[in-house]
Amino acid sequence: MRSVATAILFLLALCVTVPGAAAPPVSFELVTDSGFSVTGSQRWIDAMKDLDQSGLRIRSGRPGDETKVVNRGTEASPSYHVVGILMANNQLALPYGKFSLNDRAGIAKWIEKLQDDGIDGLNKTKAAFGLTSDEIVEFDKQLSTPIDFNTKGIRAGDIARKIVKSLPMETSVTATARRAFAQNETVLDELNGLSAGTALAATLRPLGLVLSPEKPRGGKVRLVISDVREVEESWPVGWPPQAEPRRAAPKLYEYLTVGIQETALSEAIEAIQNLVKTPFLFDHNGLAREQIDVTKVNVSFPKKRVQYLRVLNQVLFQAKLKSELRLDEAGKPFLWISPRRG
Asked: CA dist 260 to 156, 266, 293, 297, 300, Å?
């Protein structure tokens, strides 16, 4: 049995918490356009004085003035200088944005986006997790390398730590997640050969934990392991195929002659899995919630020539289960087996 000291050392090794970097400073140079009210400058100064900016000056416009953002710092430590135009209609024009005098919230969001995503990020819309599409794609790519070690029956915390250490990104583990790892639960599925993202998500799920990407202000995207109740969005265990399922996993649609008579569902599933050479992952949370034990449910199937997937779905149906084809981050197919609802 692990000693308390060993458990503490493990948790410290797993939890690599990286504090968010300070937000880059942003200074403003506002240029008054022809026709702009001579009394309007002070109102804009008052409107922007409490925003997250390091300096503000207003001057008269000159030929060739245009909105722009310049990084006066370095790539590692940026310092942004923004040139905006105060237009005759009393609106503020900034790169990729126009704001009224009363839209302080909109200007604040513009500043935050510049600080978070840099100059190139100003014209990019956010996708899931508050990240840009490019950031989501890069995060997915970093999770796509397959793991090359066995997982079934191994302590979940040890598997999670091994996967995390292989990832080329910073990782943070919440206090609630650390307590869950201390329960010494083991991984119930064999995840060897699946991508790091899918393997990690499947390892965490039975513990009530999830992974998600997070981008601290001024920092890089990192991976966060947390309790499912601590986040609004979480990274799934695999993704639905974009192409027709038959093309993604053709072996599942091959034919065989088979007959099953009063056999434990667990044995039938294992036999089919060995034949199709496709990983089967289980929604263990759902099975526990519905009190379904695949070792205690007997299933039958009349002898006939039929597709592998049809046989599997028929025997799963008898236990109120279903299968769903998913792909890991590297595009490898697997079947997700979960309770059938309704």
From this structure: 34, 12, 19, 13, 5
Q: How far apart are CA 259 and CA 261, in angstroms?
A: 7
Evaluate whether residue 125 is within a structural domain. no
Residue 110 CA to residue 263 CA, distance in Å, equals 62
Residue 5 scores a pLDDT above 70 = no
Exposure class string for 121-145: b at 16+ Cβ within 10 A, else e: beebeeeebebbeebbebbbebbbb
pLDDT score recorded for residue 186: 97
Its domain, for residue 329, covers 245-339
Mean pLDDT of the chain: 90
* Domain-located, residue 172: yes
How many domains, the chain? 3
Cα torsion 326, 233, 164, 3: sign: negative
Domain CATH code at residue 196: 3.55.50.10
- What are the Cα distances from residue 59, in Å, to 35, 49, 86, 91? 14, 16, 10, 16
pLDDT digits (tens, 9 = 90+) for 229-241: 999 999 999 999 9
Same domain, 177 and 324: no
- Tell me the C-alpha distance between 320 and 298, whole Å: 12
